[in-house]
Amino acid sequence: MAAPQRWLGLVAACCLLATPAAAQGIDYGALEALFGESITVSATGSPQRASDVPTDMEIVTADQIRQSGATNLPDVLAHVVGVDVLRWGVSSADVSIRGYDAPDSPRLLVLLNGREVYLDNYGRTQWDAIPVQLAEIRQIEIVKGPNTALFGFNAAAGVINIITYDPLYDTVRAASIGGGTQDFLLGSAVGTAKLGDWGGVRLSAGGFRSDEFAAVRQLVEPLGLQQRSQQGTAAADLHVRIGADQEAELEVTHASLNHVEVIPTWQPAVDDYDINSVRGSYSANTGVGLLQVTAYTNIVRQSGGVSGGALGEQTATINNQKTFVQLQDVFKLGAVNTFRVATEYQRNTMNTVPTAGAQIGYQVYSASGMWQWQILPELALTNAARIDMLQLERSGLPPLIPALANAPWHRHIDEPSFNTGLVYRPGDNDTLRLTAARGVQLPSLVELGGLQLALPHLIATGVPTVQPTVVYNYEFDWDHTIRPLNTTTRTALFYQVSDGLQAVQSGKYLILPTGIVLLTPANIGDSQEIGLELSARGTLTGGWRWNAGYSPRLVRDQLLPGQPPVLTGVDFARTTPHNVIDFGAGRTSGRWEIDAAARFESNFIGFNGLPNNTYVPVQVAAYLTLDARAAYQLTHNLTLALIGQGITYSSQRQTSVGSVDRRVIGVLQARF
Predict the structure, then answer these.
(1) d(CA 431, CA 423)
(2) What is the separation, in whole angstroms, between the first and last Cα of the chain?
(3) Please, what's the b/e burial string for 423-438 (b: 16 or more CB within 10 A of its CB; e: otherwise)?
(4) Contact, 169 vs 195, CB < 8 A?
(5) Angle at which helices 3-17 and 28-35 pack, to 10 degrees?
(6) Could you give the C-alpha distances from 426 to 37, 480, 493, 533, in angstroms and in order?
(7) Which of 148, 390, 443, 556 has a CA that sits 20 to 30 A from residue 31's CA?
(8) Closest CA to 161 of 184, 146, 142
């Protein structure tokens, strides 16, 4: 890179760092047009070009979402290199980054415009309960590797931040209807409106209903449970500009979901979710930097029951509420030093289930800082550090464990985390990254005592002694552009260590004096992973585009004595596929747009929970799946698409629960 070009890049970076840092306070479209690439805040908390981020990040654009033919978020992510999707049913799926595949995937933190949609009760994300329509998503930012130093607990394996269009800067109006096999019906609508020069509003709503896959119907029918999933979401977002230097935003969302899912004990369950959220933010450019206050509350009501397995048939209603407040400041000292300092408070509570009468919760006080140093135009160092101080609490009736009161729950958990990344750009075509990170995964509220189950032969309950899992990640990345071939490549080599793996059921049972078996969660050992991610993306003449990826990874678990997988349901070395290959191709020609994506996964295992409190491994053979979309633009505003998912098979086993059926869907979309 010539010296003038290097300094031009530095000036561009300074321009980015002077823009508002809130996910919804950035004119992404203008910045992308200016710099010729995607802009993100999910790596450091301040705006950056995607090529400059000090972490391994993948950005899925709105065009890629449309071309995928996906009707839900997990299917959008299913062909991203380094991302695994366990598809349990029509509307139930779990997403993980770099393996460690299991029900609920607690190591991945998911956000919508910076607000957590991660559910702390079981430590999971209910993807179809995220209140967003695919047509209103600008981009999905996928951070691979821990990022607890920026986002806090549970960003242990990575972060997915879903960014919607901002009504202050963007105009989006779209409506879709569709239907297909499994008696599938869907509908959605998104609209934005400008309020003069000072504001904008975005409204969206949508939903679907569908029969379950045949394998799921066969599983739940003998139990007399439902065989249909249905969902509905709505959102309203108001973003206003107050003078030249201040902005405020208010977002209200609702989601309802009823479906069959798989819980951490590898058992099927039928659950209803009712989730409401309110988020507000205010930012101001001041003499001490860009100040921002963000606050939100998530109110979750989950009703349902476990169907069979080790815990018998149980029903419960969980009320889980999370309140979050953050104050941050982004400022510069000189031309090459950018800082972000923040303090946060959150409170998280749930009632005990199915035995009621008590409440489990915690408060977290956090302080964090980030320093980005542009050492040279081609060399930047970013360091971020954080301390989270958690105060666990329990109130109400005493726990089920005899002779144990509430006092042991009144304890502190203090955890530091860090991210550091060195980014070197020796020329226009190459970017090298060297990174290290420490992330933290909290035990879920259920593991900390939210579960209180009493049966004649056993007691299953959470305990306050479960420790967080600490994840260290060390990585080298190389991005390379082959301009004559219009191709970009990425090579990522990483080594990861997980200390203190958690299991919802320990392999060491305690026999009470009454002869009753006591089951509790526990930390059961450690694990290491080494992996490689190779990916490439490019375009060809004639409107063709293509992408390919290969991700080999090797996991080794060191479980403690007495904690075998048959008793804990934990065996990451075998539940993680060792080899995953992705390939996609598509073409836009005139009014036609055709895309196809294939994924191969080598053999792995899952588990089924048994009535005798053990787990039986289920082999999932290596499989290849193919998805495709063909769309024709009927008019300037109207597009008809035919989508096929798993088109090379009628039914295919992809998890231990059962098979995924072929799906064929037609969607008519109007844009105004």
Answers:
(1) 7
(2) 43
(3) bebeeeeebebebebb
(4) no
(5) 180
(6) 19, 11, 19, 22
(7) 148
(8) 142
Distance in angstroms (rounded) separating the CA atoms of residues 299 and 323: 9
Query: Closest Cα to residue 320, out of 461, 466, 445, 443?
Result: 445
Longest dimension (CA), the chain: 79
Number of domains in the chain: 1
Q: State whether residue 468 is helix, strand or coil.
A: coil
pTM across the whole model: 0.93
Bridge partners of residue 502, in order along the sequence: 523
Is beta strand 199-211 parallel, antiparallel or unpaired with respect to 184-195? antiparallel
State phi, psi for 230 to the nearest 5 degrees.
-150, 150
Residue with tokens 């026999």: 511
Among 103, 87, 125, 90, smallest CA distance to 230 is for 90
Number of CB atoms found within 10 A of residue 509's CB: 15
Considering only CA atoms, which of 452, 578, 559 is closest in space to residue 502? 559
Q: What is the tens place of the pLDDT at every residue in 136-158?
A: 999 999 999 999 999 999 999 99
The answer to whether 290 and 17 are in contact (CB under 8 A) is no
Q: Three-state SS for 558? A: strand
Bond into 354 cis (ω within 30): yes
pLDDT band at 640 (very low <50, low <70, confident <90, very high): very high
Closest CA to 553 of 574, 531, 571: 531
Q: Quick one: how far is CA 657 from the chain centroid?
A: 22
Of residues 447 and 39, the one with the higher pLDDT is 447
Residues 6+ apart with CB under 8 A from 610: 309, 310, 616
DSSP per residue, 15-74: HHHTS--STTSS-HHHHHHHHSS-EESTTTSS-EEGGG-SSEEEEEEHHHHHHHT-SSHH
For the residues 164-170, what does the mean pLDDT come to? Answer: 94
Phi-psi group of 449: left, alpha or beta (phi > 0 → left; psi -120 to 50 → alpha; rest → beta): left
* pLDDT band at 226; cut points 50, 70, 90: low
Please identify which residue in the block is written with the tokens 């300037």. 636
Question: What average pLDDT does this structure show over 554-568?
Answer: 95
pLDDT digits (tens, 9 = 90+) for 362-378: 999 999 999 999 999 99
Q: Which tokens hold the place of 345?
A: 């408070």
Element of type H or E holding 75: helix 73-77
Region 328-341 average pLDDT: 94
3-state DSSP of 155-187: CCCEEEEEEECCCCCCCCEEEEEEEECCCEEEE
Supply 428's token pair. 């226009």
Quick: pLDDT tens for 272-285: 999 999 999 999 99
CA–CA separation, 387 and 262 (whole Å): 33
Mean pLDDT of the chain: 91
Query: Which DSSP category does 215 fall into?
Result: H
- The helix (run of H) or strand (run of E) holding residue 642 is strand 638-645
- Domain of 428, CATH number, reads 2.40.170.20
* Domain around 664: 3-671
CA 293 to CA 250: how far, in whole Å? Answer: 12
Concatenating the DSSP letter of every residue in 310-321 gives: TT-SEEEEEEEE
Which residues, other chains included, contact 100 with Cβ-Cβ below 8 Å and sequence gap of 6+?
A: 107, 157, 498, 527, 529, 555, 572, 575, 576
Structure confidence at residue 308 (pLDDT): 42
Q: Which two tokens stand for residue 166?
A: 């901002």
Q: Per-residue pLDDT averaged across 306-323, rounded?
A: 69
Q: From CA 326, how far away is CA 186, in angstroms rounded?
A: 37
Q: Is the pLDDT of residue 460 over 70?
A: yes
- The yes-or-no verdict on residue 294 having pLDDT over 80 is yes
